[in-house]
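Check my protein:
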Amino acid sequence: MSSSTQPYPALVLIQVIITRYAYPVVLSIGIVGNFLNIILFLRKSLRTTSCNN
C-alpha cells in the first residue's frame, strides 16, 4: 500500500487553478469597481444632495 501526502490530487489541481486564474480576475474587478465608486462619489451633485427629503 502506497501512502500519498495528497489524498485528492484533483482537488489540489482545482485549488491551483483557482489560485492562479480566479483570484487575479476577482481582484481586478474589485479594483475597477472601487475606482468607479471613487469617481462617482467625488461628483459635486452627490456630495451636496441629501438622501432624506
Q: What stands out?
A: Residues 31 and 47 are 22 Å apart (CA to CA). The radius of gyration is 22 Å. The chain has a mean pLDDT of 84. The helical segments are 9-41, 44-48.
